[in-house]
């Protein structure tokens, strides 16, 4: 008697490897969005998050994309830049606020603005670089001048001023000629003192230092 032979093929069930494998050609670490980042900028250290840095900076977006292995031994990232200037960079990235470097006695710090512009250009932050390049900070501070001629015979009074107001006094000495009697060619010279007061008020518009909603 002939028996038919049944070939049974056993299918092997593959067990998935619990260790995920990256398909990226770059084996370096990709930093999660919410992970804390420690930056060493020059001689200063800053703590922030990846999301804060990558949203507006093309430089940091590339740095944390996994293409580069820039982590130093202590887990921080070193950036060869000026840490004092980076304070203004990070303020812009965190809050969308542009720094105004203004002193009531010295005026604007143009060297400081140039340093911010250069670092913003290096870190690929176009909104900050353009804000400084277009000198929009000049409109954030306005100085109002009011000139008044004072009566020198009146006693001076103590005045309380707001911190954004300054007063300057400018005395002047003038010689006037007064005609004597009916003679037009006879004059008497008289010394007259005048006092001019210049009131300067500095007006700050903070809305010009904040990124506009929906701006590119």
Q: What's a concise summary of this model?
A:
The protein has 216 residues and is an alpha+beta fold. The chain has helices at residues 50-54, 58-63, 83-95, 110-122, 126-133, 137-140, and strands spanning 36-41, 44-49, 77-79, 102-103, 107-108, 141-150, 165-180, 183-204. The chain is built from 6 helices and 8 strands, in the order E-E-H-H-E-H-E-E-H-H-H-E-E-E.
Question: Which helices and strands occur, and which strands form pairs?
Answer:
Blueprint: E1 36-41, E2 44-49, H1 50-54, H2 58-63, E3 77-79, H3 83-95, E4 102-103, E5 107-108, H4 110-122, H5 126-133, H6 137-140, E6 141-150, E7 165-180, E8 183-204
Parallel strand pairs: 1-3
Antiparallel strand pairs: 1-2, 4-5, 6-8, 7-8
Radius of gyration: 35 Å
Strand order of the largest sheet: 2-1-3
What is the count of helical runs?
6
Going by helix content, strand content and strand pairing, the class is alpha+beta
Overall mean confidence score, pLDDT: 79
- Apparent shape: rod-shaped
The portion of residues assigned to helices is: 10-25%
Number of strands: 8
Strand content of the residues, in percent? Answer: 25-35%
Order of helices and strands: EEHHEHEEHHHEEE
Uncertain segments: 1-32
Please report the distance between the alpha carbons of the first and last residues. 87 Å
Specify the biggest β-sheet: 3 strands, mixed
Explain what you see.
By secondary structure, the protein is an alpha+beta fold. Helices cover 23% and strands 31% of the residues. The protein is built from 6 helices and 8 strands. The protein has a 3-stranded mixed beta sheet. A 3-stranded antiparallel beta sheet has the order 6-8-7. The protein has a two-stranded antiparallel ribbon with strand order 4-5. A hairpin with a 2-residue loop joins strand 1 and strand 2. The longest helix has 13 residues. The radius of gyration is 35 Å and the shape is rod-shaped.
């Amino acid at each position: 008697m002939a028996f038919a032979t049944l070939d049974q093929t056993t299918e092997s069930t593959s067990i998935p490897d619990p260790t995920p494998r990256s398909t990226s050609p770059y084996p370096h670490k990709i930093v999660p969005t919410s992970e804390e980042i420690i930056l060493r900028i020059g001689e200063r250290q800053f703590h922030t998050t990846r999301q804060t840095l990558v949203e507006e900076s093309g430089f940091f977006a590339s740095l944390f994309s996994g293409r580069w292995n820039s982590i130093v031994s202590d887990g921080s990232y070193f950036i060869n830049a000026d840490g004092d200037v980076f304070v203004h960079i990070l303020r812009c990235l965190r809050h969308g606020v542009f720094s105004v470097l203004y002193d009531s006695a010295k005026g604007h710090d143009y060297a400081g603005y140039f340093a911010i512009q250069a670092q913003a250009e290096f870190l690929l932050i176009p909104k900050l670089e353009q804000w400084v390049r277009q000198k929009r900070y000049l409109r954030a501070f306005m100085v109002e001048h009011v000139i008044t001629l004072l009566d020198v015979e009146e006693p001076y009074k103590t005045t309380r001023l707001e911190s954004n107001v300054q007063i300057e006094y400018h005395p002047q000495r003038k010689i006037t000629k007064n005609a004597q009697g009916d003679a037009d060619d006879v004059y008497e010279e008289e010394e007259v003192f005048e006092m001019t007061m210049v009131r300067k008020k500095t007006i700050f518009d903070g809305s010009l230092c904040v990124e506009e909603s929906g701006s590119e």
